[in-house]
Amino acid sequence: MSTQYQMTRVIHTGDTHLGYRQYHRSERKRDFLDAFRQVVDDAVADDVDAVVHAGDLFHDRRPTLDDIMGTLSVLRTLDDADIPFLAIVGNHEAKREGQWLDLFESLGLATRLGSDPVEIGDTAFYGLDFVPRAQREEFELDCEPTDCEHTALVTHGLFEPFDFGEWDPRDIFETADIEFDALLLGDNHHPETAEVDGTWVTYCGSTERASAAERDERGYNVISFDGEVDVRRRGLDTREFVFVDLELGESEGVERVRQRVGEYDLEDAVVVVSIDGEGDPVTPAAVEEYALDHGALVARVTDRREAAEETDREVSFADPDDAVRERVRELGLSNAARSLDETVRASKVVDSKVAETVQSQVADLVDEGDPDEFASTDLLPEEAADGDDSPDGETEHEATGTGAPEDPTDAADPTDTEAEAEPNSQPVPAADGDSDEESDTDAETTTDDDQSDSDGGAPAEPTDSAEDRSSEATESADEGDPADQQDPDDQATMGEYL
Questions:
Q1: Measured between alpha carbons, how far is 97 from 95 in angstroms, rounded to an integer?
Q2: What is the sign of the dihedral through the CA atoms of 291, 295, 299 and 304?
Q3: Nearest to 303 by CA among 386, 245, 241
Q4: 407-424 residues labelled b (16+ CB within 10 A) or e (exposed)
Q5: DSSP alpha helix (H) spans, 192-283
């Protein structure tokens, strides 16, 4: 007699990066919210059992009031349809104290996953907030048991067996008393699926293009637990990106570039042009102006020949801050030094508070007494690879390291950087007829916005108390582009809501 299972079908999404004002355009900020809204609308239309979010709900640990209100509106749509929203904290949004996810949970709009199982149908879901590398060596996962037929762990980070994975999932599995059927991941914007020792390990990818490197269709996973685990990919309708890659021949120049750009429908599109080959010098502004005159929302041009001639480092001239960030990564600074650099150079701390914030950070670092924070670090292999751009400054997934604690003024925590790269393609258990592949999230050189995704926040230790979990949650996040920072007076704080 065959065993009868109660099928559980969920949407696995993540890396929504709400509030990201990519290219410094408010339209792009709205695009990220619209993409998240599409995911939720699909969930309601398909009557799934839950929406599972694998971290980086927000692009920043200090979202604006507008970002929070937009998120509340979307989550209320799920609540009205009686569809649970299960989530964990990623590195971008992680705070030292209470997490934004705790706010949504207090309003009955979300469930923060942890060590206690959240049972949906015959599947138990557990959560693990982003864990920085410094805390992984002694890490143990302590989960409460369940009688459910299936189990899934939701977490955020760069995992093997994918390229540039820095954590073997078996290291987690071996410390847990539970055998997981699936590991649902966020952090890598490129969707991938692989089987590791009988457990399906899958990235859902990002819901919007946080970098011009993310060329393929954006989307999410639909996962069914019904005796077996079935992973299917679905695409989202997002803003058009027009990619124009051309190699100029001898004597060809700006007119040839304009001609190629003019072959595309540019209306409301983000246009990314990459020039290589020989030919005459091309002024990016001349091409960008042409694209904007023909309806483009944003245009970015990179002449790789110019970068190759002037430096052996590939730099996007659309944003000089890129060069600074790249050079800082190459200096081998300690985590502490990189944190302080981020505060002084690129954080949201207002000028009048920088000295006070740095002093507070140094005092906290000394009090914590962790010698590893002051040790010089070598350039990470993934940082050395490609050196390509990501959304703000476009060194894609220039991610974060352990940063200093938040200042009482609720200034954004500074972080160090660590790069993330594109995983190898792996077979997906099943196809959904929609997109099952997405592009490299990690090697891109053409735009001026920065997407960090990695070692930036400490995890909340799974406990029964949201307050306890929050006290562990960490100091990580993205390197925000200075030009992209909002007015500190416009930043929402947890105290306004809790």
A1: 5
A2: negative
A3: 245
A4: beebbbbbbbbbbbbbbe
A5: 254-261
Give CA–CA dist 89/200, Å, rounded. Answer: 21
Tokens representing 189 are: 């914007």
Burial class (CB in 10 A: 0-12, 13-18, 19+), 490: exposed
- The per-residue pLDDT string of the chain (498 residues; one tens digit each, 9 = 90 and over) reads 455 668 999 999 999 999 999 999 999 999 999 999 999 999 999 999 999 999 999 999 999 999 999 999 999 999 999 999 999 999 999 988 889 999 999 999 999 999 999 999 999 999 999 999 888 888 889 999 999 999 999 999 999 999 889 999 999 999 998 999 999 999 999 999 999 999 999 999 999 999 999 999 999 999 999 999 999 999 999 999 999 999 999 999 999 999 999 999 999 999 999 999 999 999 999 999 999 999 999 999 999 886 555 544 554 555 556 666 666 666 667 777 777 777 776 555 666 677 777 777 777 777 777 777 777 655 444 444 443 433 333 433 333 333 333 333 333 333 333 333 333 333 344 444 343 333 333 333 333 444 444 443 434 433 444 444 444 444 444 433 333 344 434 444 444 444
| Cβ atoms of residues 378 and 338 within 8 Å | no
Is residue 218 within 8 A of residue 270, CB to CB? The reply is no
Q: Which of 315, 259, 261, 251 is nearest to 281 (CA)?
A: 251
Q: How many helices (H) and strands (E) does the chain have?
A: 12, 17
C-alpha distances (whole Å) from 476 to each of 226, 455, 459 are 37, 7, 10
**Residues belonging to the active site:** 92
Spatial separation of the C-alpha atoms in residues 160 and 167, rounded to whole Å: 6
Kindly provide the residue ranges of all beta strands, DSSP E only, lying in 321-373, ordered along the sequence.
none
| Helix (H) or strand (E) segment spanning residue 289 | helix 284-293
The amino acid at residue 343 is T
Q: With the CA atoms of 77, 157, 30 and 415 taken in that order, what torsion angle do they form, in degrees rounded to the nearest 10?
A: 130
Strand-strand pairing, 182-186 and 150-156? parallel
DSSP strand pairing (150-156 vs 123-128): parallel
- For every residue of 97-114, DSSP letters joined together read S--HHHHHHHTTS-EE--
Tell me which DSSP letter residue 469 carries: H
Contact 239, 31 (CB under 8 A): yes
